[in-house]
Amino acid sequence: MRSQHYPAALRGMRKHKSKNLEPGQVAKIKYRRLGQTDLNVSEIALGCAGFWGDRLFSERKAISVVSEALSHGVNFFDTGHNYSNFNAEPRLGKALRNLLGSGDRSKVILSSKAGTVVAAGKLALSKPAKIKDFSPGYIESSCAQSLRNLGTDYLDIFQLHGITKEEITEGLLDRLDTMKRNGMFRFLGVNTHALADMNFIAEHPDRFDMVLLDYNVLQLDREPVIAKLQANGIGVVAGTVLGQGHLIKGKIGRIRSMSDIWYLARSLVRPGGRELAAKSAAMQEVLMSVEGMTAAQAAVSFVLQNSSVASCIIGTTKIANLIEVIGAANNDLSQHDIERIRATYQSMQH
Fold it and tell me: Distance (Å, rounded) from C-alpha 126 to C-alpha 326?
């Protein structure tokens, strides 16, 4: 069960519509054990991808988002070698060097990914000839490049990005074992959106330590496999908790900055984004009606009240949005609101 203690800055949020913490005010973030690892990850993790890592977005502002996350107790940072047209890892590495200096590396938990060879975040309209490479040699060289980009000797978590069960070979697993023994990473994970592959990972806790999957109030079909993963000792991290922004009314389509244009374009190009958009209207209204929370906080709080989830990954270019979401970690939904969300989800299945 999550603690019912609320810091002074957040008290009263249940009775009145949430007021975001201001920069400088610190919410008391909580931590959860990731599966059977020794990692205690913050309930809110910062996803360092998307427009955050894009060269069109100010590096100074990107670093300020990381700084704000650290100041609120966020210790978990997730990225990928191909994110933001291959710019996210070097940017996160620079941010951490600027903010931590020669400080204790164990203060942060770094996760990155390999296996996808095309640039993520580049809105290409044509399909590339080669999308993935899970050959042992490529995976090891990609991990080595991630270490250089991030300026670190090791990754806490190394994820196979979008791998299917058919692509998991003994040769690859043997090479990963060698990489782990050589200290390149501590724990092995998989980032997947496919239920079949989630179930496969759940059946092999001897090989895998965690899974990053998509889970939000529009994807409650994930819950059985999430419970199975956790029961088998595999840590679960939730991504897409705001439905790529489609769970927040007016978030996608309102153009006020370059980032708004980027996220609108992504939502139109990606089939998954279009699907979430088509299903989101009724759920938006439910989230907006939750007393004492913003819609974003309600969406995140729902995911965090699943005790099988260790952390929610949030990506943003705005400090105000980050602070708003961090507030959800100290604000539980009522049982009535949980039931309304579930009923709305069920109504969409018919």
Answer: 37
For strand 210-214 and strand 109-114, is the pairing parallel, antiparallel, or unpaired? unpaired
Of the two residues 110 and 260, the one the predictor is more confident about is 110
| Domains assigned to the chain | 12-347 (3.20.20.100)
> Are the CB atoms for 207 and 188 separated by under 8 Å?
yes
Distances (CA, A) of 189 to 81, 91, 157, 158: 15, 23, 7, 6
| Phi, psi dihedral angles at 228 (to 5 degrees) | -65, -45
Q: Express each pLDDT in 207-247 by its tens digit.
A: 999 999 999 999 999 999 999 999 999 999 999 999 988 88
DSSP 56: T
Q: Phi-psi bin for 291: left (phi > 0), alpha (psi -120 to 50), beta?
A: beta
**Six-digit token string for 187:** 């724990």
Residues 6+ positions from 24 with CB-CB distance below 8 Å: none
Cα separation, 245 vs 243, whole angstroms: 5
Backbone angles phi, psi at 159, to 5 degrees: -110, 140
For residue 2, pLDDT over 70 is answered with no
Band of pLDDT at residue 120, cut at 50, 70 and 90: confident
What is the three-class DSSP state of 216?
coil
Helix, strand, coil shares of the chain as percentages rounded to 5? 45, 15, 40
Report residue 77: phi and psi, to 5°.
Answer: -125, 125
In this predicted structure, what is the pLDDT of residue 125? 52
CA pair distance 155, 113, nearest whole angstrom: 10
Residues 6+ apart with CB under 8 A from 77: 45, 46, 48, 66, 69, 92, 96, 108, 109, 110, 111
